[in-house]
TrEMBL record:
GO molecular function: ATP binding; ATP hydrolysis activity
Source domain of life: Bacteria
Source species taxonomy: Bacteria, Pseudomonadati, Bacteroidota, Sphingobacteriia, Sphingobacteriales
Residue span(s) of domain ABC transporter: 23-260
Protein's UniProt keywords contain Mitochondrion: no
Keyword vocabulary terms for this entry: ATP-binding, Nucleotide-binding, Transport
Keyword Translocase (UniProt): no
PROSITE patterns named in the record: ABC_TRANSPORTER_1, ABC_TRANSPORTER_2
Name of the featured protein: ABC transporter ATP-binding protein
Species this protein is from: Mucilaginibacter hurinus
A Pfam family the protein falls into: ABC_tran
Length: 263
């Protein structure tokens, strides 16, 4: 029912088709010299879906997401985002694409000399070219509230804990309303309680804004909380795919090894 209240609460991406494939990867290959990192990567990410990628260190998880945003060029295979071939995009088109994709780097990467508010204003004025200060204030406050940090608006990053910085980093990525989020190890270096909070935040963001996400993690609690679907990457390929609970009882020993510490 389209009540006024519903309209106000509409997510950032109102045209919502859950069967739409937002990222399509087929037969993706990428080598560095003689090192064949990606041998055959296949993945379809659907609108509104959270896919967790598990894999040992150095398997090419980060390389895969760098291919998705066009920072690295694959050697072979299909890679489309919103139906467009990333390899064929001009610099301008890549820029536009990156405005629709939020990329949460491991470190959070805030500007240390700016307050939290200024950190959040930056993408609004630089990326979206917003000028209306009221609109800017409203969006900054809204997104900070969303990550539970409205109190920290005038603080410097150095006054925040690691978990809070991660939240601000997430807020700064979310403030431009990305349709896709790529999380590279969002909970690394955080204590279990803070990790859990960040994982729950990722889940809430998916629910609230219908964002489609690829979440790379070693943190099985994060995988359990956030995933609709899990893929396991090994030696340049995805060797298994399923729900968290399905993979937990997989026949494949490599797959099961990730779940060892889970009860
Ligand atoms: N730009 C590059 N040039 C050369 N080699 C690279 C480049 N980027 C990544 N590699 C190599 O590709 C392999 C996969 O790296 P990648 O960072 O994707 O691993 P990962 O699965 O993300 O590992 P981790 O879990 O440790 O983050 C590594 O051996 C790495 O050295
Ligand atoms: Mg990595």
């Amino acid at each position: 029912m389209d009540t006024a209240a519903n309209i106000v609460e509409q997510p950032a991406n109102p045209v919502y088709d859950k069967d739409e494939v937002v990222i399509h990867i087929k037969g993706l290959k990428k080598s560095f010299g003689s090192k064949h990192v990606l041998k055959n990567i296949n993945l379809d990410l659907k609108r509104g879906e959270n896919v967790v990628v598990l894999g040992k260190s150095g398997q090419g998880k980060s390389v895969t997401i760098q291919c998705i945003v066009g920072l690295l060029k694959p050697d072979e295979g299909e890679l489309t985002v919103f139906g467009e071939d990333v390899a064929l995009m001009s610099d301008d088109e890549l820029k536009q694409l990156r405005n629709k994709i939020g990329f949460l780097f491991q470190g959070g990467a805030l500007y240390d000399s700016m307050t939290v508010r200024e950190n959040l204003e930056f993408p609004l004025t630089r990326v979206l070219k917003l000028r209306d200060q009221n609109e800017i204030n409203k969006r900054v406050e809204e997104v900070l509230d969303g990550v539970g940090l409205l109190d920290a608006i005038d603080k410097m990053p150095s006054d925040l804990s690691g978990g809070m910085r991660k939240r601000v980093g997430l807020a700064r990525t979310l403030i431009v309303n990305p349709e896709i989020m790529l999380y590279d190890e969002p909970t690394t270096g955080l204590d279990p309680i803070t990790s859990r909070e960040i994982s729950e935040l990722i889940l809430n963001m998916q629910k609230k804004y219908k964002i489609s996400s690829v979440i790379i993690t070693h943190d099985m609690e994060c995988a359990r909380i956030t995933s609709d679907r899990v893929v396991v990457m090994n030696e340049g390929e995805y060797i298994a795919e399923g729900s968290f609970d399905e993979l937990k009882t997989s026949d494949n020993e490599i797959v099961r090894s990730f779940f060892k510490e889970q009860s």
